[in-house]
Design a protein that fits this description.
- Helix 7 crosses helix 8.
- The radius of gyration is 28 Å and the shape is elongated.
- It is mainly α.
- The protein has nine helices and two strands.
- Helix content is 60%, strand content 2%.
């Protein structure tokens, strides 16, 4: 989650720097330093847009993130404190494991230490995810409010500029800056979504979780098919043969 906040802020800062025009004093110096490059040929009707960056750079989303960081500051502080505690515990355990490997301790001892490390790492992921969930849900809630108007914003830009083909940056190898309409999409979204709600309503789930529930629900509610009259009951499925116990997943520590 901390990385998500830094990522959002980094995109906003980078976009602001790229959007800054050259000052009047810089332009002559740049022109004198190098000959003017030939003007790129722009194919009509084609454009490129980073839609994720467009959402993150809207006024509504940036203001919402700032408010959410204040609203959910206790969760952020708890997340950072727990993360530091887990990191210290895991470092101690890894140091001990490496020392025991160097000392050529029995493989059973090393395997037990490795299993304990993996167990603590899984506990850390679950604990931290639950701790920061209020902020994660808030950011997803804000994004979905803006995404609901994203298609309309793109259509508005396409209509104004005569765009018939819109590409994502990750789908192409190179595109001249003149093709990029991300800033124009941001401007449209700023008009369509001036503000967003910060706190989701009770029981709200992000789209990914809602889709998972929707996929599981039909299977759980599917009624049993009636057996035709006179048909023999279905034979029970054969019991699988017992399989040997699986070995622990992940890299194994070195033996003696």
């Amino acid at each position: 989650m901390t990385k998500t906040l830094k990522h959002a802020g980094g995109l906003a800062l980078a976009f602001a720097l790229l959007a800054q025009p050259l000052s009047a004093q810089t332009r002559p110096a740049a022109a004198a330093a190098a000959p003017a490059a030939p003007r790129a040929q722009i194919a009509p009707g084609v454009a490129v847009a980073n839609l994720d960056a467009a959402i993150e750079n809207t006024n509504a989303y940036r203001a919402g993130v700032a408010q959410a960081q204040n609203l959910y500051k206790p969760a952020i502080d708890a997340y950072q404190a727990k993360g530091a505690q887990y990191a210290a515990r895991l470092k101690t355990m890894y140091d001990q494991l490496n020392a025991d490997i160097t000392a050529k301790k029995p493989e059973a001892v090393l395997q037990q230490q490795y299993n304990e490390i993996k167990k603590l790492e899984a506990q850390r992921e679950e604990d931290l995810a639950q701790t920061i969930k209020p902020l994660v849900f808030s950011m997803n809630f804000m994004r979905e409010q803006i995404e609901a108007k994203l298609s309309q914003a793109v259509q508005n830009v396409a209509s104004k500029r005569g765009i018939t083909l819109l590409l994502r940056p990750e789908t192409i190898y190179f595109a001249a800056p003149a093709y990029d309409i991300t800033a124009a999409v941001v401007q449209e979204l700023n008009v369509l979504v001036p503000t967003v709600q910060i706190s989701p309503p009770a029981g709200w789930l992000p789209r990914e979780l809602r889709e998972q529930q929707a996929q599981q629900q039909p299977q759980a509610q599917q009624p049993a098919q009636p057996r035709p009259a006179g048909a023999a009951p279905a034979a029970p499925a054969p019991r699988p043969a017992s399989a040997p116990a699986p070995r622990p997943a992940g890299p194994q520590p070195e033996g003696r």
